[in-house]
Amino acid sequence: MSLEVLHIKKSVSKEDWFCNELFLHKEQLYRIAFSYLKNEQDSVEAIQAVTVKAFVHYKNLDNIELFKTWLIRVLINYCIDELKRRKRYVNTNESIEKASLQEEDNTIYVKGFIERLEHKYRQVVLLKYFEDMTFEQISRIIKKSESTVKSRLYRAQELLKEMMEREDGV
Amino acid sequence: MIGDFNETEFKKDKEAYMGIEIPESLERTILEGLEKGKKQRKRFILRRASSIAAILILTLMCVMVVNSPALANQLKRIPAFAYILKVIHWDKGMTEAFEQGYFQELGLSQGHEGITLTLDKLVADEKNMVIFYTVDNKSDKEISMCHFAFIDPKGEHFTAGIGTNGLEKDESRPGNIFTGRTDVNFPDNNGSVPESFSIEVTMTQSPDISYEEPVQAGSESSRNDNSNRSIKGEFPSKEKALKSVWTFSLKLDTEKFFNKKIEYPLDKIIEIEGQKIIFKKVIVYPTRLGVQMEIVKENTKELFYFDDLRFENEEGEIWAGIMNGVSGFGGPGDDEKTIYLQSNYFTKPKELYLKFSSIRALDKDKCKVMVDLEKGGVLSELPQGLRITDINSLSDGYELKYELENDNMKDEKRAYNVFYSEFIDASGKKYSFNHSSMQSSFTGKGAGAIYIPKYEYKGNIILTIEDFSQRIENETVIRVK
Q: Which of A34, A74, A144 sits opposite B20 (nearest CB)?
């Protein structure tokens, strides 16, 4: 559905619609941002940066009904970049390549086993089980096929199981 | 569900996650973001690359949208054409080329690192070539771009401009299949497509910051201090290249592709408001149409762009044209210009007319702008409507901001990129900037900025105006056929 059609149907201004959508998803967006950035100030900044970005670009979306998944993708990419930028500041004597290689070490918020998973596995677990998203939505967010999402989730489950078994001394 | 193993541990994780405290200020944050977004929305960014390739990409992006539903439906029934049709849907000439069988089947595949690149089809003439290709990505890397290098039998790289579209996911096929096209365009006076050549393709992974939307001429983009670092003169280059090179050797079906061009000699001198242009000839290749012209040296104005150059057939229908101005080879000051339009080679009109009504132009003595970067001053008289509002010294360069007053209705949706990317210092040495930004002129006042790298310039620098809102106007018709 095009944006124009949607707005005519709902009889709201584009701006109001945009604002409502942001308000509607604000808690989810904040949790995701916080899970990456781990502090309030950076997470709030992320939400604002993504609001600006989204407001400028959302008109270009082919299907406005995918606004939410697009927004989350923009947010996650912002957060990953922000983490990399931090590392570059910290490791001023190290090469950018090294900082880039360390990206996989970024930790998502959760305190238990999931934190030990590689980023690509943590990401799908978070979106699927914490945010209750469908495979299709996750596929759109991380720009991978649904089968890749499923296989990552399956692999994540196996890894979690192994970790938990080791922990239990099985 | 994960619950088939230690669910309690997992639940704790989820509870911790869902318990993240939401700050009360969040709605205010969003509203502030919305206000910033509004300010930035009207801003247009043009990333200027100095290469010919970039000019050609713009040309391609700007070609007139001509839909041909009947043709499209016919071709859609052939599965292999589905994606190509999508890529060329705006290009009537190219669509017809395919319908006429004017293409070469390639079907050449090579795989490295779990990624198979297949060159599917090729369309060419002596000066241009388009290759359609498919990437089957079975690796865990996200590929954003294929970079094509073309090498002639002597081992030399092509002298052509090469423009490659970003990869598009082919949703109609299962798996991780992406499609793309690459365009090769030789200038009229330099080189041509050889009969045989090799291709070396490298691939880059998606940039680390993929929230950065691609920016094209005429598209809106944001300028967020948090997110768009390029405003500070840094050029984000975060793409990671793969190690492998996909190599192919190709031999063209020259019988099919070469010696197809049609030339229409014109040799007409047109005078508008005292400015003369000699229209020399029109050359129609299957993939590109060129109008060769000479701008008379004695003109008192520099001529920039035609607003509405087009070809019409005997019924007044547009046979070939371009939207949003016209691009061609050559920078400001070049007397010989060739303007390229979308070709419509396979449709043969009975009569053909070249038409236009206005050309953007400015007095030659107003086209040079001398700037003192150190003191932040402008030493030339600027043309009416143009104001340089600020010159800021940044860590790695200078930001020069300008405003352009303009109430011409023809410019309702146009943002002007006023300055040419090449400039000189007092010693005459050439330099270039490759980044600039523009705001639209919806309100009658446009604004822009250029980012000049920091060098040891000798004295003041001299910028050249390459586009401006003043015009010379006259309804002009030249019979071509």
A: A34
